[in-house]
Amino acid sequence: MSGALKVRGLSVSPGDGDQVLNRVDLSVGEGSRLVVAGPSGAGKTTLLRAIAGLETPGEGTVELGDRALDDVPAHLRRIAMVFQEPRLLPHLSVLDNVALPMRASGADRQSRRNAAAGLLDEVGLDGMAERGVAGLSGGEQQRVSLARALCGDPELLLLDEPLAALDPNRREGLRELIVAIQEQRGLTTVLVTHDRSEAAEVGDSIALMIAGRIEQQDEPEALFERPASVAVARFFGTRNLIEIDGEGAGLWAIRPEHVVLGSGHHEGRVVEVAYRGSYLRVLVEWRGMRIEAHPQTACAPSVGEAIRFDLPEQALWRIPGGGPS
Q1: How far is it, in rounded angstroms, from Cα 99 to Cα 42?
Q2: Is 253 within 8 Å of 229 (Cβ atoms)?
Q3: How far apart are CA 85 and CA 251, in angstroms?
Q4: Which of 145, 229, 249, 266 could cross-link to 86 by cystine, CB 3.0-4.6 Å?
Q5: Rounded to whole angstroms, what are the CA distances from 15 to 19, 90, 312?
Q6: Residue 220 backbone dihedrals phi, psi, to 5 degrees
Q7: If DSSP codes are grouped into helix, strand and coil, which group holds residue 314?
């Protein structure tokens, strides 16, 4: 049975070195999916390791359900972790790799083989039980790693960028599998990624971590459309941060896809047009700034062209406390 996860004031300085986590607060509802997003070096992996009991915090608390985990060793926390690298044992078969958590807990051989076989079926690897792991693709190895994590019947599942090394097709398939299994089991899950699109697709909620702090935790739409800071806006692709006369003091954000080209109250000059597959990236020079728009490919202006554009009021968001960019 899963429980809600609560992290309060968690600070970590591995090996008494530089501080990696700085009083992190985080909450994950029972049976829900949280994605921790952020750039490389933000502290995302250290956060997962501290929750799992693999790093010792200098201060702060971790609670899972009604249990405080601060003094609970890693192997008793009922937390499973899937790493970016599958970390399978090459001398064991696929099935025996999956069954490792039950073997460690003392379950008899037949019980663990039955449980592991069922999990292999669940992750789409039925018929591969007796194969060696060396011949598996990266995606298949990660499915084995996921099945192994589930074999311990965890209350919390942590996934540290498990899709990062996969090609796009395998990444999409495994992402869909993770969501399907989480929803079917109602398993409280935290997944780490640096990919903002993946964060939006996977997370019931997203927490953006930058430099060891959580900048904002909310539903995906809020971080994309209603960023709490300039850092959040920039990470999630809102590059238009502007001051607008008559709209009040402060800094306003608008996503490129909401900028309307070809009509509107403002006029600028096109300085760049770049093809991006399903849309164009158009930069318009206006008032000493560059406004980015993402129109469809059929609406291509020319570089140097004077163009009217609109910044729809309903798509503008005032960044709390925002000042001039």
Answers
A1: 33
A2: no
A3: 41
A4: 145
A5: 10, 31, 51
A6: -55, -45
A7: helix
Containing 234, the helix (H) or strand (E) segment is helix 230-235
Query: Mapping DSSP to helix (H, G, I), strand (E, B) and coil, where does residue 221 land?
Result: helix
- Is the sign of the CA dihedral 261, 262, 263, 269 positive or negative? positive
Cβ contacts of residue 182 below 8 Å, gap of 6+? 33, 157, 189
Question: Each residue of 100-135: pLDDT tens digit?
Answer: 999 888 888 999 999 999 999 999 999 899 999 998
- Strand arrangement, sheet containing 289-293: 289-293, 280-286, 260-275, 306-310
Task: Calculate ∠ Cα 49-23-205, nearest 5°.
Answer: 70
Token pair listed for 230: 């300039």
Q: Which single residue is written with the structure tokens 């047009």?
A: 273
Backbone dihedral region for residue 18 (phi beyond 0: left; psi -120 to 50: alpha; all else: beta): beta
Please answer whether residues 232 and 215 qualify as being in contact, where contact means their C-beta atoms are separated by less than 8 angstroms: yes
CA 198 – CA 187 distance, rounded (Å): 19
C-alpha atoms less than 13 angstroms from C-alpha of 290 in its C-beta half-sphere: 9
CA distances from 287 to 243, 249, 299, 313 (A): 10, 17, 23, 19
Asked if the model's pLDDT at residue 165 lies above 90, the reply is no
Query: Measured between alpha carbons, how far is 275 from 281 in angstroms, rounded to an integer?
Result: 6
Q: Which residue, chain included where needed, has tokens 């970016």?
A: 84
- Strands ordered across the beta sheet of 156-160: 79-82, 156-160, 188-193, 33-37, 205-210, 213-218
HEC assignment per residue over 34-73: EEEECCCCCCHHHHHHHHHCCCCCCEEEEEECCEECCCCC
How many C-alpha atoms does 132 have within 13 Å on its Cβ side?
Answer: 4
Does pTM top 0.85 for this prediction?
Answer: yes
pLDDT of 245: 63
